Amino acid sequence: MNRLGVWSAVFVAAVLSVGCGGPSNFSERRKEGEAGVLKYPIKSNPTTLDPAIVQDGDTIDILQNVYEGLVGWDENNQPVGYLAEKWDVKDNGKTWVFHLRKGVKFSNGRELTADDVKFSIERACDPQMKSQTADAYMNDIVGVTDMVNGKAKGVAGVKVIDPSTVEIDLNQPTPYFLGRLTYIVSAVVPKESVPTTEIKEVSQCVGTGPFKIKEFHPNQLLVLEANPGYWGTKAKLSRIERPVIIDAQTRLNKYKNGELDMLLLERQDVNALKKDPVLGKEIVAYPRPSIYYVAMNQLVNPQFKDLRVRQAFAMGIDRDKIVNELLEGLNEKADSIVPPGVKGHRDKAAVYPYDVAKAKELLAQAGFPGGKGLPPFTLTFRDGQPDVKVVAEAVASQLNANLGLDIKLQVMEWRAYLEKFNHKEQGFYHMRWAADYLDPQNFLSQMLATWGPENKLGYNNAEFDKLCRQGDTTLDYDARVPFYQKAEDVALQDVAWIPIYFQKDYELHKPGVNGLRESLFGHLQHTTTSITR
Q1: What DSSP letter does each residue of 395-447 carry, written as one string?
Q2: Is the pLDDT of residue 164 over 50?
Q3: Partner of 276 at 20 to 30 A CA spacing, among 148, 443, 473, 514?
Q4: In angstroms, how far is CA 45 from the centroid of its own chain?
Q5: What is the model's pTM?
């Protein structure tokens, strides 16, 4: 979920404030005991209000309650019909015919039609949208890449058969197509309510979801209210409040003070809170199909083109110490790329061990004995997440001490970080990738193949590409896995990146929070969530 993240068009908070409601005094405590209002924070300002360009999981968590696509996830981690009631698969998997639900309406009151589906996909693919996700998640559809690249005025593979039927033609049979189609970039919006460029005003946020955006005050608060015309299960909540709280300690203090109902914890707080007789009972753990890693961009730092340098960096980092001591063993060390929960995951693949002597030897062979001759490097990481900072500091400290390197740290605001990442300008960075669909393709071909839309670091290996192609085009699921596992070993031996740990989320939930729907990806739409105080 990057997500990440991500992997976009420029988003300026000051611009977003236009049409987003007047100033409010958010320091004033909301009335205690307010019924039907769920309050939980977001760590940084939402990066956008537009489903066509959103990349990060924090913002998607908000927007998935407002916008919907043809399909989405259920509690069993399977794609199910959202706006599509059913579908037919033809031509050996190259043609998908989706039949829309009857009576679905946008939050503006207008009924959904197949024309809206085609419009929304083509809007996301319009070059002026500068979407980083349109081609990444829809390039299996005939004509998507052509439109994204300005070579076509529309997407030829999306056809309106009648007002309630849409046909989607693929370039080739794609076994993970439904999973990709769950990504919010293909969410359906009405032509009359949205701009042809990025959505920046609350009045333009019109979807078919169980909630509507009521208010947005950048860097302060986003408020959702229940959509009374929702086609599915009507929300039990009247409102969801998402205050923007960057500081982790402030978030925790507000939870303790009863100002928040849910909270994603930082690692350093978990073990102490487990011992608390009250708060310890409110902790809930969720494994996530996500990996945190350190990447070396060969496009920015040519020294990383030398395999020996990449190997030395990988073997100079004590991942056991980082995960089991500094992060207190609350996450699982990543000895592979594909995380638990995704078919094909292995507890240990061909990852390099921690070996300082061998790392020094490799660095000397590359012409940089004791690190001499290498330039200073800057390791960048996002703001607002103490655990990310802990890992970045440890990586820099260990490489400096073990290999004689000069690595400095740079923390960046999340939106600015993503912008630089999208332009392949992050030279040496700490990042997360979260599954968008539970398929090894999402972690291998998507991230590291030469054609992979998330390959932002110039990684190129012909054997890896060949194995990924075989996995991508083999229809039998079980037969695909060996290709991906071999590709994963190639990438690890080639140090395409350095895996650090697989994510596990720890959250605090007030006892009055009930009915949360969960999947491996996180909280699903809050249609059954309720709150009592």
Answers
A1: HHHHHHHHH---EEEEEE-HHHHHHHHHTT--SEEEEEEE-SSSSGGGTTHHH
A2: yes
A3: 514
A4: 15
A5: 0.81
